[in-house]
Structure formats: structure tokens, C-alpha cells
Design goal:
With 77 residues, the chain is an alpha+beta fold. It contains 2 helices and 4 strands. A hairpin with a 4-residue loop joins β3 and β4. Residues 1-26 are annotated as: Disordered.
């Protein structure tokens, strides 16, 4: 699976690794993806989400029910 957050949609960024001699090689900036289980009262069951640490903060601020409603509207659940 790709390293993409289900809540925020963040995906890896790309850039250059610059050595001491200033040579540049391609590198990848991965997102800190965590697999996290949440109990959703409106569904009456638990769901597992692949979320970034910023996505966890979004869920804490908005609530799991609002986030799940957005995911269902987008067709991800």
C-alpha cells in the first residue's frame, strides 16, 4: 500500500540528498503513517485507519464521527 494518509491525503515528497561534496541524489521524504484503530459510535464498530500524525490530531480536534462521515462521502470507507 502507498504511504498516504486517509484523513489528510498527505503523500511522500521528493527532493535531493545533498552530500558534503554537494553531489545530489534523489531521495524521498516519507510521511509518518500509523495504523490506528478507532471505535466509531455511529457505526457501532471499530475501524482501522492509516493516518499520519497530523491526521491523528485532526481526528482529535474534529471527532471521529465527522472524519468518518467525510471518508464515506469520498468513498474511502
Amino acid at each position: 500500500m502507498s504511504r498516504t494518509c486517509q484523513v489528510t491525503g498527505r503523500s511522500p515528497g521528493f527532493g535531493n540528498a545533498v552530500s558534503h561534496s554537494h553531489r545530489r541524489t534523489k531521495r524521498r521524504f516519507d510521511v509518518n503513517i500509523q495504523s490506528k484503530r478507532y471505535y466509531v459510535p455511529s457505526l457501532g464498530r471499530s475501524i482501522t485507519l492509516r493516518v499520519s500524525t497530523r491526521g491523528i490530531k485532526v481526528i482529535d480536534a474534529r471527532g471521529i464521527d465527522a472524519v468518518v462521515a467525510d471518508l464515506q462521502r469520498r468513498g474511502e470507507l
